Amino acid sequence: MANRVGPIDRIYPMQIFKMEAARAMGLEGDMSDADLSVLLTHLARDKSAIAYDRNAVKFRSPEDSSLLLTSEDLTIASLKALVSQLQDHVTTLSARIATLSEKAKQAVANKNRVAALAALKSKRLNENILQQRAESLSQLEEIYSKIEQAVDQVALVRVMEGSTAVLRKLHKDIGDVEKVEDMIEALREETNKVEEIGSIIGAAGQDSAIVNDDDVNEELESMLQDEKGEEKRQETSDTQRRNAELEAIEKPPGTDPPLKASPTQAPTDMITKTLEQVSLDEGST
Fold it and tell me: 61: which residues sit within 8 A by CB, 6+ positions away?
């Protein structure tokens, strides 16, 4: 029971507390007055968990610095007790009406007109009482709901009051609006200084890294000319080599001049042909 959170849920009429305590302790039947007194004393004096009088019990909430039963608490306990009584009456009347209806049906089946009329009259009377009790119960439940809503609103207002005090203190620590504006402007100026310094440092680095495009183009042109000259020389060398090979094949034996060793001429087929030509020359002599 003490685990409930709502402020109204922590208030019990004494009779309802007695029944729920007996159920929670697993007792059969009602709790005796002596046992109830011992339990109340233990919870109030030893545990400081409740405040009570002969009509109501109120459990302490974590937010309560002191635990006292107020007149509002006693009114809520009385309202709960009355709602509980009306609920019991409604349940009893509904069961009684069902029983009377069954008696009327049985009397009709037995052809007993007098008993059937008596059962029906009693049924109608109980139905009227049930309607009155149900209307009263509905009104009390609506009142209880409004009280719950009001309690929640009180808690909300208290939270808002505390929040307002916190905000007021924080604003006092921050200062007025002009102070904040001056601080923001000073921060903006210092940020701009950092950006200007960074721009100057970046510009200096770019100046030192500038490359003269004319020098680069001149060096590239020189490399291209060197490459063209090398290709030309290679083509001339290849042409001369092919011409020499053709001359060696077309001339008759014995007409070739003595071979001269060339440091750049070393193909295998040329060596073979030269050796063959030497062998022919030796044979003719």
Answer: 5, 7, 10
